[in-house]
Amino acid sequence: MRTPSFKHLVLVFFTAAIFLAGCQKEEYKIPDPVSDLTNDAIKRSLGPNIVSQTIEFAYAMALPKEKGKLVLAEVEASIAGASGTFLQNNSFTTGGAGQDVPVLVGEPSVNKDNRTSVTFNVDTNAATLRYFYVIPEEARGKTVSFTFSATASNGSKVTYKLGPYNISKMDIKRLIAVSNNNNAYISIEDMAVYNATSAVGVAGKIDLVYLFRTTPSAFLHGLVSPAADPIYLPGVTLPAGVNRSSKVRREFGVQDRNLANLQFGIYVDDRDFQEIQLANSPNYAIGLRAEASTWVETADGKYRAYIYVNAVSTASGGSAVISILRYAL
Amino acid sequence: MKLKNIYQPLFALLLLLSASFMGCKKDFPVDEDGLLITARAECFVSNFELLGADFITVRAKPVVIDTTAQTVNVEVLFGTDLKNVYPQFSLASDCKLDPKITGKTDLSDLSNPKVYTVVSGNRLVRKPYTVIIKYQ
Q1: Sheet of B96-98: strands edge to edge?
Q2: Which of A133, A176, A253, A255 could form a disulfide with A264 if both were Cys (CB 3.0 to 4.6 A apart)?
Q3: The whole model's pTM is what?
């Protein structure tokens, strides 16, 4: 083998030099100080966005002291929020125990069309306001976007866009009390419970009957379709016309956070209802207990629902508290 | 050394390598599922579990497995939806089950109990087990 020539050696040397030069660390540069009005926003709430529920944001804005003070904060939603939508006129500091301590910085917020604004009434050059958007009915199944803006006394204005966010098609109804032989007739369409007398008027909408039986021991609290085998409706005389057969699947591993009073870290969303297969499910669910739930599909195929059992009681013949998420197919 | 001259030994090396790879044939016998066929002839069900669609057991009592009569007797809770259950078998070492359980199973036809065949590790012994279910 020939010994490497001088030319080769020079080439290798230069290549190595280039590589080494490329690995040089860049000096840290102190970022430019904020020289004018700036802003930032985050979405604070989690989970599906359900009509009538609130989406919460935090909107921060600041400018150098010598440039002026904050004058106006405003949020524009692509679909006007429902009644109860507001931009909080407090900024917050953190107290000694880590709690939020409000500091009043402006007038109460004003809603006009799809804009919500707070006019500052204190001399401040930095604030973080919280925005609570109550999801209106007209946003169901659509998307909503938000444009946050702040105006300073020197005339400068900044904006920050968030979204679009999908608004769920689901309906929510919390804490419905059901009791054995009394308020026992549940309608998914109405998201309500009826007694034997009032159920006659809405017989075509009754999907489930709540019952409590101590024998057999596996029965206990049950949600049974009116058309189920009579062995699952012992001692029940159905009101006239109550005869629907819903598909029901008992579930122990899913506890929706919205229905379970903010316990658990699971959210049931539109997609769950779209994808669940209930065609082969029975028309009854027995052996329910607190924190259990059921998936339901109504006989007419119009609705799927998720019923969460918040609490059960064996006192006075048996009762339960249930909450419902409903999805229109 | 000229670059051209490198090709010949490289080619030879490649040929040698490919020949040696071809020689690496496995000696262990596997069945049609890719499972190892062993020397074991044991063939029985050692345990059985039945889960509902909610993945909670639906058994009302401990399961009775009769390895002589080749039956699995299960008593299930009142109200069990036997159309949507997950049977789970524990078998002797290296055994496999035929038919395979792939997910939710319909065991609701109580008059025609389902039969599962246990196949031994050496794949020579086959024992059919009948799963007999009755309600509580």
Answers
A1: B64-66, B71-76, B126-135, B114-119, B96-98
A2: A255
A3: 0.80
